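Run log // design_07
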């Protein structure tokens, strides 16, 4: 939030400088005056130092290009795909101290307040970065208004299999011998959590009653249909990337209040509706020999669809 306000402040200062430079035209310089003196005066009133004009142009052109590409690309489904544009936005703040100095030299009445606001917002941004460390993946500012993050965003905006060390810490802290794990990845989770048992929060068994389960925040509403779990005691892990849930002693029947969904309401990662891609890739990892026949099957289906067209 502080960073967004800092960007708005920089834009406001730039607009003020633009308007004041339009009203306060420099007085004519006598022919005897030094050309270098007039150049230094003009350069001192420019937000971009002399010799850096091409750098600045490359910066904002790159920002515009990356933003347009990110907004038009249908594969950009996570904020991490926007990270280059965010880094360029940070660099766009580089002229702000120089603009504030120019504003102060022009005797603008609000220059002091603008400098104080800049310092306060910069400090607030640093404090926010330190406070959110290391859980930047699921970090949300105050605009989320305290709503559950899994209701606001989807896909890998909350979890991308980075929180496994926190799951193992939870297992060790609780002294658990085994834990049910519904992750949001295409990897073998036992490499990170030896006590993990691959589990689907959409299809629990009666034997799972009373046990601890860890579910990715991305699987609660988007990757799977498991909002029913949040009615039971739970603990956020890694800043809300994953949730540890204690299942009830008796799990209600599918489709009943407090119970898992019926098969017709299942959801899978990536918007797939017919099969669980996570299980498919896990099978390939455990048994690579399954991959060639699967690829042959997919190729045959593709050729069949192609002939129909």
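design_07 sequence
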């Amino acid at each position: 939030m502080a960073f967004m306000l800092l960007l708005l402040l920089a834009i406001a200062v730039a607009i003020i400088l633009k308007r004041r430079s339009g009203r306060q035209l420099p007085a004519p310089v006598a022919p005897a005056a030094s050309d270098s003196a007039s150049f230094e005066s003009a350069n001192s009133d420019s937000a971009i130092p002399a010799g850096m004009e091409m750098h600045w142009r490359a910066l904002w052109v790159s920002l515009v290009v990356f933003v347009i590409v990110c907004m038009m690309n249908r594969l950009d489904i996570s904020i991490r795909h926007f990270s280059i544009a965010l880094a360029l936005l940070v660099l766009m703040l580089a002229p702000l101290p120089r603009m504030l100095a120019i504003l102060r030299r022009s005797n603008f009445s609000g220059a002091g307040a603008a400098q104080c606001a800049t310092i306060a917002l910069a400090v607030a941004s640093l404090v926010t970065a330190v406070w959110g460390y290391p859980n930047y993946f699921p970090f949300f500012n105050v605009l989320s208004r305290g709503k559950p993050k899994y209701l606001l965003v989807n896909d890998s905006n909350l979890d991308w299999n980075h929180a496994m060390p926190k799951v193992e810490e939870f297992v060790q802290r609780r002294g658990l011998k085994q834990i049910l794990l519904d992750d949001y990845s295409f990897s073998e989770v036992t490499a990170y959590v030896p006590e993990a048992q691959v589990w689907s929060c959409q299809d629990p068994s009666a034997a799972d009653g009373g046990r601890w389960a860890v579910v990715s925040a991305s699987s609660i509403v988007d990757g799977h249909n498991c909002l029913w779990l949040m009615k039971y005691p739970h603990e956020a892990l890694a800043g809300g990337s994953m949730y540890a849930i204690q299942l009830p002693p008796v799990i209600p029947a599918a489709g009943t209040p407090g119970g898992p969904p019926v098969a017709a309401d299942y959801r899978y990662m990536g918007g797939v509706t017919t099969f669980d891609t996570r299980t498919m890739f896990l099978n390939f990892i455990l048994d690579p020999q399954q991959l060639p026949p699967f690829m042959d099957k997919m190729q045959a289906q593709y050729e069949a669809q192609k002939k129909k067209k």
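Confidence is low (pLDDT under 50) at residues 24-43.
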